[in-house]
Amino acid sequence: MHDFLDEIRSRLDAIRAEGLWKTEAVIASPQGPRVLVEGREVLNLCANNYLGLADHPALRQAAAQAMEERGLGLASVRFICGTQDLHKALEARVAQYLGLDDAILFAAAFDANGALFEPLLTDQDAVVSDALNHASIIDGIRLSKARRLRFATGDMDDLERQLRAAREGGARNILIATDGVFSMDGFFADLATIRDLADRYGALLMVDDCHATGFVGEKGRGTPSRAGVRADIVTGTFGKALGGALGGFVAGPQPVIDLLRQRGRPYLFSNALPPAIVGAALAALDLVEGFEGDERRAQLDTNTRRWRRGLQSMGFELLPGEHPIVPVMLHDARLAQEMARRLLDHGVLATGFFYPVVPQGKARIRTQMNAALTLPDLDQALQAFRQAGRETGVVI
Ligand SMILES: *Cc1c(COP(=O)(O)O)cnc(C)c1O
């Protein structure tokens, strides 16, 4: 036991020595465009709070009312005695919003992706997965007995090669799995081409739309809507644009949802979502489908374009794109940490990302826009980037 802990300590030392140690900023306020960190109010440029709903009065009110009327929690998994009318309402609401048959709730999108593949696919089937897919998709696929094929991220020729290999290998059913948006880069999957290949090879298409639901596409219906195509199965989260609390879902064809309710392990062996979370998610969907949703999406878009333009004009290296994820490339992990530290000194919270969440040599500060940031906020944040960038020699 003693040796084992020493071994762990030396692995921790190695992580520190490589400059890969992650620390956590402690926030003493609600999540929002400005947060309280180390006793100071700072601008926050790294939450997935795309629509600024994490502290929205209508969602807080809906959460409070649901807790008042339905209690703190269910103390049960769904099938034993943990299903309330609110859960049924939210599942129907998600399915209707996304234009799919039905939906099933999970404690998190991580669990939704963890639940999906194992019951759906047998050893006679194949899953073809983008190499950059979220960790929860990778883990979910590992749990299934299906043949696994990977395609280089965004490489449609490689996707076709893998689909052909799956067909030639005699797969009965093929499922293509992709993120709608790749969260480290803000790149969109090429869903138009992927849909076309899925149809040509008789495959189903699964899209994880965690970084899109609520704000991408018409009424925020996500990346399939933006690309003008249909996804067969969509997984998503209530922990990002749709209020930022917790909870995930799978939406799709009725037999898929029915099977997950019977056989999905994170569904069968884990507690039901609490009423407050479910009530807030229902309110979030009402909001994003309404006029306020349109306004917030328009503001998010304006902020994203202004932010990109500002950083670019100062000479920062960005990854190209349109998504509110705007990565500022620094390449070196220590430099990313130093930049983040100085940004905080200048009043901006923006976390450095480095190995293992991005490849070695691709360290960055992943900035994210949200609809609650004002234009003066953005100007102030740009000034902080200029100062921190000069101090670290990243820009002149
Ligand atoms: C955030 C994220 C998840 C996990 O969502 P949670 O609801 O927080 O578990 C899954 N997939 C992708 C692509 C994500 O970005």
TrEMBL record:
InterPro entries: 2am3keto_CoA_ligase, Aminotransferase_I/II_large, AON_synthase_class-II, PyrdxlP-dep_Trfase, PyrdxlP-dep_Trfase_major, PyrdxlP-dep_Trfase_small
Name of the encoding gene: kbl
Highest taxon above the source species: Bacteria
Metabolic or biological pathway, per its Swiss-Prot or TrEMBL entry: Amino-acid degradation; L-threonine degradation via oxydo-reductase pathway; glycine from L-threonine: step 2/2
Family: Belongs to the class-II pyridoxal-phosphate-dependent aminotransferase family.
Cofactor names: pyridoxal 5'-phosphate
GO cellular component, one term: cytosol
Key word S-adenosyl-L-methionine present: no
Naturally occurring in which organism (per UniProt): Rubellimicrobium roseum
Subunit structure: Homodimer.
Role this protein plays: Catalyzes the cleavage of 2-amino-3-ketobutyrate to glycine and acetyl-CoA.
Keywords per UniProt: Acyltransferase, Pyridoxal phosphate, Transferase
Cofactor: how bound: Binds 1 pyridoxal phosphate per subunit.
Catalysed reactions, semicolon-separated: glycine + acetyl-CoA = (2S)-2-amino-3-oxobutanoate + CoA
Protein name in the entry: 2-amino-3-ketobutyrate coenzyme A ligase
